[in-house]
């Protein structure tokens, strides 16, 4: 009966563990490795539970088994998996100790003797599981929401707080097992305090996250306001250019009509030599692409960056305006920003349509010896937490359009290759 009871308790514990992990992650596709990754930890816990090891041994074995199960059976980053395992175990040992204290008070028994009956074992296991789930769900929910783009100082706090909690609970448990202390109601207060501190630590990042999102939103608004201003200026210049050309054509037409071809040729030569370098007009038969490129050319001109363009687009282009805006603005902004810090100060943009795909190749000069890594790029921005959102936005937009994106380094230049369908996909249309 004792063996069946021990295995039953492990099953209850493993079910709770699976529920939590399934909430935080996605199951890996079934394979022999993922199956063994779940089966072996379960069998180890069943086997070791029959020996009724001390708390320190149980701590080490449980964390190893939980981590193995998580790594081999679920998909996500290693750091996130470790953090969730730690959070779960903190909730588990707090719940277990709190359950024993409550049961000791209810049944008027000592802390060390409360689990001497099968009924109390099952009751404690079920109560611990329920309390663990109640504690773990909100803490993991907060963690999942806030875990992106946190500075290292916050990560240290996130890791240390649960570990210190585990240490405190283990020490209290060891003292209670050897003492004659019976006023367990008093111990509820420090345990509630430990739970509150852990929850508060994770919830502390709510304000940080809100401020971060607000800052990014402000930057985005400023960015689009600047782009809108540049677009208006560019439209004015285009209107002026069209007006000037119309006047020049009228003059040349009149001169040729009157037979004064020499004066007409002289006037054409003057027009040819006239400096229209401040006016940029790009026409790709796609209004969104035209507007973005003209704006970016203006930005490059203001920074004295040599911006070269090579384009050959077909007529049947129906790409998502929002996605193409995200892609081009961010890629070209990053290219101009990097080129501005280099000696060469060059940016080139190649756009071609072929076999139903639009291919963008953006090349920019960089600081000598600097290699660009999109997954681990450094920044000199004042708020480093805002760094990387442009690249993430581009990757998401390309993915949403069922396209591909590649980065490469070549002779102090960064090259970005993007290929996307030139027609809207079903998901974009919806």
UniProtKB/TrEMBL annotation:
Keywords (A to Z) from UniProt = Kinase, Membrane, Transferase, Transmembrane, Transmembrane helix
Which segments constitute the Sensor histidine kinase NatK-like C-terminal domain? 323-421
Keyword Cell wall biogenesis/degradation attached: no
In terms of superkingdom, the source organism counts as Bacteria
The GO terms this record gives for MF are: identical protein binding; kinase activity
A Pfam family of the record is HATPase_c_5
> Does the keyword field hold DNA-binding?
no
Transmembrane feature ranges: 6-25, 32-51, 57-74, 86-107, 119-140, 152-172, 184-205
Protein name, per record:
Sensor histidine kinase
Q: Which organism is it from?
A: Monoglobus pectinilyticus
Q: What is the lineage of its organism?
A: Bacteria, Bacillati, Bacillota, Clostridia, Monoglobales
